[in-house]
Design a protein that fits this description.
Helices cover 55% and strands 8% of the residues. It is built from 34 helices and ten strands. Helix 12 packs across helix 13, helix 21 runs parallel beside helix 23 and helix 23 runs parallel beside helix 25. It starts with a strand and ends with a helix.
């Protein structure tokens, strides 16, 4: 078969390779042109060649038994694969895709069919970059192939791909794909007789295909056409054409394979490297001038001169892309750059990239967006969305204000939210309820960017034929994602999309996800969201519903397990404190949804509060939770007893019962103290550790701030008095250690309550003055404290070297930390 089968290895989206494919077809006039691409599209090649405005892509999806996969096969005018299809058909050849379908396990997690594994042969390309003194594989490719004459290009490509693949071990997926493609090549060789067969694949696969087809294909009699694998009968799978854009093709936007700067290479394809260089210079100048960045004619002359000089210096027969970009950068940028220029490597633009560089990259990328032929088939979801939007009277390009209390507006809101979670552009919500307890009953939607809307709708169709089913599938996928950090957002989005229509899978994923959350902060968000909706929802119809009740119960159990096993050192964690607050609210306001009695939760909180290895802020929060639940349980018990007494009319028996209850159980004599008094005793136990004191108080105030601030009389003074005594007795060093955490703790009080505490301090010290003035120091207390620490360090240093001029026993006339302590 050696002379009849011609294997042409290409780089995806390379103009030089596309020209070579066209020339090969013209010269060989092959019977078959075989192309790397999804074989399950062979029966739909007429659809692919309808006459679309490129770029377009074949979008493939697959879902079965918990495994899902999506993949794109992008094609633009200068893709060698596209040229092989169109030029091959025009020459009368039989054209066919020969690769496995995108859903096949051989593609694993690969989201792009043409993402050849360049990392596996990075060492070879690094050596070549060093040999040719270039910065990146893209510059190397331009140097070897794009700017050089076409003579001998096929041989150079073969040598290049043989070198870069070498004896690298292919992954199992690549091995399966190459074996399948080789079976197509052998079958085509048999069917073609004496006529040539042209095979166009990514260059990474060419050496392997040469070995698989060169030995036994000559004796390929009886080789049948390979069968196209089919998904499982109950799998949801399919392929559709979608519009694509140059932005999606660009390596600077994260594209996994092919060439960067598609707008520039389109000009190379259509006009050649010299004209492409001039076009790029004009495009960059136009973009900068449109943004009022000065670009003079002298700047452009300098850029062109630098480009020509760099081309000559680098040995390029015609200007390459990096020559043009480096010339523009040298002529237009006079500032220091924070990092290397982005075209010296791969990946997206870094934050803080120079604005001139941003415009240069954008000019190289281009703004072309593909468009499908009107006769292109679309998934059912596309047609359903069009009908739903028409029925709801929603038109793109117009703002909407929706009253969520109105049934029709609520349905329109759900429709827009379902499109939002599916990632379909068109409208953006600018106002509306942010969480389950948010008392907002209107939404504002503004027209958004429509680019990519058609492609997004086709891709969303992979989740289901109906909009509600597709949205539920996306939310279930989010809820089942790694880390479970987004459970709270997924839950609220499920409610916004219409909780009555969510799928069983979503409910199962949410329940499972709650049981797998590993961080108290993430769990607290889920519990707070579910509890807020369970208690307060008056719009979405989920208040007191079984879905939210089950989630609240699961979250409480998981939260108790996480918090009781938590260990840590000093420092305050707002996430875990919010989790304790959510546990408190669930036990107090939704006891019927909590699967354990209050006494059990209080006992768990008591254990945490007494665990010396638990973080101090958590111990303070657990102490407050325990006291709160004890008080709530006592109140509930007394209410039940009073109700029973009224019903039975037995006042004397009721009195004895109340007396007994005040002496036993959670309402024992020690537990009967008010929370501020009990907290004061606990604070005294922490007096030896200033750093832990502030963290402990932060936990206490986070959970029971209201009880502390509302306390009046001796009970209210107890905690403030103990804290005042402890802080006043601290040494300077102890005070400086405790100050940051103490400030964080009292930040839980709003200004009015902090003023009340300041008033208590003045009254306790029998001082006259404005409580408000104590809260308005002229200098940030931390700055004062840091200054005092610096002074102390300098004093110690002077004393060490005998340079301290202060008289023995002399005292400072002013102590800034005294003001801070107050």
């Amino acid at each position: 078969m050696g002379g009849r089968v011609r294997l042409l290895g290409v780089r995806h989206h390379s103009p030089a390779c596309a020209r070579l494919v066209a020339a090969a077809i013209e010269e060989l006039r092959p019977a078959y042109v075989l192309v790397e691409g999804p074989a399950d599209m062979n029966g739909r090649l007429d659809e692919l060649l309808l006459g679309h405005e490129l770029p377009v892509a074949v979008f493939s999806h697959y879902r079965h038994a918990g495994r899902s996969a999506t993949s794109w096969t992008p094609l633009c005018a200068y893709s060698p694969e596209w040229v092989a299809l169109t030029a091959g058909r025009a020459a009368g050849a039989q054209v066919a895709f020969i690769d496995l379908p995108a859903w096949h396990p051989a593609f694993a997690e690969r989201a792009n069919r043409y993402a050849d594994a360049e990392l596996r042969y990075a060492r070879a390309t690094e050596r070549l970059c060093e040999r040719f003194a270039v910065d990146s594989v893209d510059a190397l490719w331009d140097r070897l192939f794009e700017v050089e004459p076409a003579d001998g290009l096929w041989e150079r490509l073969d040598a290049y791909f043989d070198l870069v693949r070498g004896d690298a071990q292919a992954e199992p997926g690549d091995t399966a794909r190459e074996a399948y493609m080789a079976s197509w090549v052998r079958a085509a060789a048999r069917a073609a007789g004496d006529r040539p067969v042209l095979v166009v694949t990514g260059g990474f696969h060419t050496p392997a295909l040469r070995g698989l087809t060169g030995s036994d294909a000559e004796a390929g009699a009886g080789q049948e056409w390979p069968e196209v694998p089919l998904p499982e009968p109950d799998a949801v799978a399919g392929s559709y054409l979608v519009p694509y854009s140059y932005r999606q093709l660009d390596a600077f936007a994260g594209y996994q394979s092919g060439m960067p700067s598609p707008g520039y290479y389109e000009q190379v394809w259509e006009r050649g490297p010299r004209e492409a260089a001039d076009t790029l210079v004009r495009a960059v100048a136009g973009r900068l001038r449109a943004r009022r960045h000065p670009v003079s004619t002298a700047d452009l002359v300098a850029a062109r001169a630098l480009t020509r000089g760099l081309s000559l210096l680098r040995g390029h027969s015609r200007p390459a892309r990096t020559d043009v970009l480096d010339g523009l950068a040298g002529a237009l940028i006079t500032d220091d750059l924070a990092g290397p220029l982005p075209w010296t490597g791969r990946g997206g633009l870094a934050a803080g990239t120079h604005p001139v560089v941003v415009e240069m990259v954008a000019a190289c990328s281009g703004d072309r967006v593909g468009r499908l032929h009107p006769d292109t088939p679309a998934p059912p979801l596309v047609h359903e969305v069009a009908a739903l939007l028409a029925d709801a009277g929603i038109r793109t390009g117009r703002p909407l204000t929706l009253d969520l209390g109105d049934g029709r507006d609520l349905e329109r809101s759900r429709l827009l939210h379902r499109l939002r979670v599916l990632g379909v552009p068109g409208h953006e919500r600018t106002a509306g309820p942010a969480h389950g307890a948010d008392p907002v009953f209107t939404e504002r939607w503004e027209p958004g960017e429509r680019a990519g809307r058609d492609a997004a709708l086709v891709e969303a169709g992979s989740y289901g034929a109906r909009l509600d089913e597709a949205a539920a599938a996306v939310l279930a996928e989010r809820a089942g994602g790694a880390g479970r950090e987004g459970l709270a957002a997924a839950l609220f989005d499920a409610v916004l999309c219409g909780a009555a229509s969510v799928s069983d899978r979503l409910l199962a994923e949410l329940a499972t996800g709650v049981g797998e959350v590993k961080e108290p902060g993430a769990l607290g968000e889920v519990l707070a969201t579910a509890l807020g909706l369970w208690r307060h929802d008056r719009v979405f119809g989920v208040a007191r519903g079984p879905l939210l009740g089950a989630l609240v119960g699961e979250a409480v159990l998981r939260g108790l397990w996480l918090l009781e096993g938590l260990r840590g050192g000093p420092g305050m964690d707002f996430g875990r404190l919010r989790a304790v607050v959510a546990l408190r609210d669930a036990c107090v306001h939704a006891p019927e949804a909590v699967p354990v009695p209050r006494e059990a939760v209080a006992d768990a909180a008591r254990r945490v509060s007494r665990d010396a290895e638990a973080p101090a802020d958590l111990r303070g929060a657990a102490f407050a939770l325990c006291r709160t639940l004890v008080r709530e349980e006592r109140g509930a018990r007394e209410e039940r007893q009073e109700r029973q007494e009224r019903q039975e009319g037995e006042k004397e028996a009721g009195d004895s019962t109340r007396s007994a209850s005040s002496r036993t159980g959670p309402g024992s004599a020690r537990d009967g103290r008010s929370l501020p008094r009990a907290a004061a005793d606990e604070v005294l136990a922490l007096a030896g550790s200033g750093e832990q004191l502030g963290d402990w108080l932060a936990g206490l105030f986070a959970v029971a701030r209201d009880q502390v601030s509302r306390a009046r009389g001796p009970a209210g003074d107890a905690l403030v008095g103990v804290l005042d005594s402890l802080v006043g007795a601290m040494s300077d060093e102890e005070f400086l250690v405790a100050l940051p955490s103490l400030r964080q703790a009292f930040a839980f009080f709003p200004p009015r309550e902090r003023e009340h505490i300041a008033r208590q301090l003045l009254e306790r010290r029998r001082l006259r003055g404005s409580a408000r003035s104590l809260l308005r120091t002229g200098t940030d207390p931390l700055v004062v404290a840091e200054g005092r620490a610096l002074e102390k360090s300098v004093d110690n240093l002077l004393a060490r070297y005998g340079l301290d001029t202060a008289s023995p026993g002399a005292e400072h006339t002013q102590r800034p930390q005294d003001e801070v302590r107050r």
